[in-house]
Amino acid sequence: MIKWTVKMFRRFRVKVAVAGVDDCWHWLAAKDRDGYGIFHADRKVPAHRAIYELSAGLEADEVVMHECDTPSCVNPKHLKSGTQRENIQDCIAKGRRNYACGTRARASRLTEGDVHAIRRRLDRGHLHRVIGEDFGVHRATISDLSRGDTWGHLEHEPPEQDGQDFLDHQPGVGE
Looking at the whole model, is its pTM more than 0.70? Predict the structure, then answer.
C-alpha cells in the first residue's frame, strides 16, 4: 500500500490530463514500454494501480484492469480490480494481445490431440507426474493444463463413450 501524502497527491495530479468525468484521464509522465503510466511513490508503481488504490482500496494480490482498454488512462471510473487470470482473459478476449497459443507457440511440445488425451487421463484421475512422463513434459505443464492456465483456448472434447482410449497412451498419434 502506498502511504499517500498531500504532497504526493499533488505530484500525481500534475501528471494527469483530466478531461470529462466519463473520459479517459491520460498519464503524461513516464510510461513503460506498453504505455502504462509509472508513478514514483515510495517505489515505482503503475499509475493506474496507485490511483485505484487511493480511490477504492486494493488487496495485495489484486490487479487493476482498464475497462476502457487505454493503458495510459488513470480515471478511477475506468478501472476495476480483478485477478491476474481475469486480466489476461479480458485482454485476450478483447484482442489486445495476440499470444501465440497451442501449437503456434514456439515452445509448445504438445499437440491438440495430446491435450485432449491428457484431459481424458486427468478426468480419470491419473497422476500429473505419470502423464507428464508419458508425454515428455514436466508435471507442472500438466498442472497448468489441468487448471486451464494453458491450452484454455482449446475446447474440451465430449467424454469418450467406450471409457478407455488407447490413444491416451500414444502422445502425438492420431493428429
Answer: no
